[in-house]
Amino acid sequence: MKQKVSISLGEDTLKKVEEKLTEGLFRNKSHIIEYSVNKFLEKDNEQPKL
After folding, report:
1. What's the pTM value of the predicted model, to 2 decimals?
2. How many CA atoms, within 13 angstroms, populate the side-chain half-sphere of residue 18?
3. Which of 9, 19, 22, 24 could form a disulfide with 13 if both were Cys (CB 3.0 to 4.6 A apart)?
4. What pLDDT digit, counting tens, does each position of 1-50 carry?
């Protein structure tokens, strides 16, 4: 089940997100942000912990 959250993005970041929508790879802004967060978390898990 998905939950709604509220976030704030800088203008430049939001502009880049909206540009990605025009490429047709993502359904909407939420899809882009969810994908990006998951990629970040995957990468973070690959990092050796000190």
Report:
1. 0.78
2. 7
3. 9
4. 999 999 999 999 999 999 999 999 999 999 999 999 999 999 887 777 66
Tokens of 40: 């970040």
Encoded amino acid at 4, one letter: K
Say if CB 23 and CB 35 are below 8 A apart: no
3-state secondary structure of 37: helix
Q: Which of these, 2, 3, 4, 35, lies nearest to 17 by C-alpha position?
A: 35
- Mind listing the pLDDT tens digit for each residue in 22-36? 999 999 999 999 999
Contact 17, 10 (CB under 8 A): no
